[in-house]
Write a structure and sequence with these properties.
single chain, 191 residues, alpha+beta, Immunoglobulin-like, 5-stranded mixed beta sheet, copper, Cupredoxin, NosZ/Cyto_c_oxidase_sub2, Cytochrome oxidase subunit II copper A binding domain-containing protein, cytochrome-c oxidase activity
C-alpha cells in the first residue's frame, strides 16, 4: 500500500514527475556510456586478458599435463610436483577437485603461455595478489600469455563454487629471479 495512492487505479497512465524523469534519463545515458566504454577499457585499461580457447577432452588434456610435469619436474612439495619449464615455454596447469596441479616455478621477466583446463567441473583461476581471474571449463583449453613482473610466491584459488571442498582448492606459482649467468650472454662465446 502506497503512502499516497495514485488518483487512478491504472498508475502507469499517471504523469511522470520531472525529477523522476531526469533521473531516468541520467541512468539511461550512464548505462549507454558504460556499455560503449567496455570496449575501450579492454585496450586502454588493460582490464581483460586476451586469451585463446580450444576444444579438448579432459583425458587428452590430463595426458598433456602429466607429460609436461614429468619432463620439467625439479622437486616435490607435499606430494605435488614442482615444475620449472624452460624460459618462454608453454606451461600446463589443470584444475580438478580440489586442487590446481602441478606447482609452477617461472622466471621473472619471461613471457609464458599458460594453458588451463578442468577435468571435472567449472573452476575459477584467480592468481593472488594480482588481478587475474579466468573461468576454466572442462572440455576447453584456455591459453593466456603471462609475463611475471615480480618475484615471490603467488597463490591460485578457485573463485567458482565447485563443491564441498571448494574452499581448499588452491595452487601455487613461484616466480624466481633469472640467474645472472643465464640472463647475460657469456663474453667468451663468439670470440
Amino acid at each position: 500500500m502506497a503512502v499516497t495512492p495514485p488518483e487512478q487505479r491504472i498508475w502507469w497512465n499517471e504523469p511522470i514527475e520531472r525529477v523522476e524523469l531526469v533521473w531516468i534519463v541520467i541512468a539511461f545515458l550512464w548505462g549507454l556510456f558504460m556499455f560503449g566504454f567496455m570496449i575501450a577499457w579492454h585496450f586502454i585499461g588493460q582490464q581483460n586478458l586476451s586469451k585463446e580457447a580450444y576444444r579438448t577432452t579432459p583425458s587428452a588434456y590430463e595426458a598433456k599435463v602429466d607429460d609436461f610435469a614429468k619432463k620439467f619436474q625439479v622437486r616435490e612439495e607435499k606430494g605435488i610436483p614442482v615444475v620449472k619449464p624452460k624460459p618462454g615455454a608453454d606451461v600446463y596447469l589443470l584444475g580438478r577437485l580440489w586442487q590446481w596441479w602441478p606447482i609452477l616455478e617461472l622466471e621473472k621477466g619471461v613471457s609464458y603461455r599458460i594453458h588451463l583446463s578442468s577435468l571435472d567441473w567449472q573452476h575459477g583461476f584467480s592468481l593472488q595478489p594480482t588481478n587475474i581471474n579466468i573461468q576454466v571449463h572442462p572440455g576447453y583449453e584456455h591459453i593466456i600469455s603471462l609475463t611475471p613482473t615480480e618475484s615471490g610466491e603467488f597463490g591460485i584459488i578457485c573463485n567458482e563454487f565447485c563443491g564441498i571442498g571448494h574452499h581448499t582448492m588452491t595452487g601455487k606459482i613461484y616466480v624466481t629471479e633469472q640467474k645472472r649467468a643465464e640472463a647475460e650472454p657469456r663474453l667468451a662465446e663468439g670470440r
